[in-house]
Design goal:
24% of the residues are buried. The chain has a 5-stranded mixed sheet, sandwiched between helices. The chain is of the alpha+beta class. It has one domain: Alpha-Beta Plaits (2-Layer Sandwich), CATH 3.30.70. The protein has 4 helices and 5 strands.
Length: 135
């Protein structure tokens, strides 16, 4: 795939907090299936009521996915914070990460979110570091 882009968005999670774990598992299963068929890879992090997602793929596939996300009731207030061309994918598959409360990178994620950089590079670096080795 020659023409690749990376897109990062933040959205507010509207999932029921009482059943959050089961709903996140369902979200992961459905998203992984759909993203694989669209040749999209990336990372989704749930943190303190928000989703942080980095997606990598063809621009048209990313555009279509973003249209679908705006109709997905599990998200609201979707805000693209960075998007740019990339030479290669860094995420080799698709992963959902909910960092433990004591994860050292949670503070870095909150810092990025408070003043989002327009470049995808800081997001890519941080979100990929949050993936456990066995994911």
């Amino acid at each position: 795939m020659k023409n690749l882009e990376c897109l990062v968005y933040i959205s507010r999670c509207t999932l029921d907090q009482a059943a959050l774990e089961a709903q996140l598992e369902d979200l992961v299963a459905v998203s992984a299936f759909r993203n694989k068929s669209a040749q999209i890879t990336g990372v989704l992090v749930h943190e303190n009521g928000y989703f942080f997602q980095m997606l990598e793929g063809a621009p048209a596939a990313l555009d279509l996915l973003m249209i679908h996300l705006h109709f997905d009731e599990r998200h609201e207030d979707i805000r693209v914070v960075a998007r740019e061309k990339i030479p290669t994918k860094n995420a080799v598959s698709w992963a959902m990460v909910t960092p433990p409360l004591d994860h050292p990178l949670r503070r870095d994620l909150r810092t990025l979110a408070s003043n989002p950089p327009s470049s995808v590079q800081p997001w890519r670096r941080l979100l990929l570091e949050m993936i456990p080795e066995n994911a």
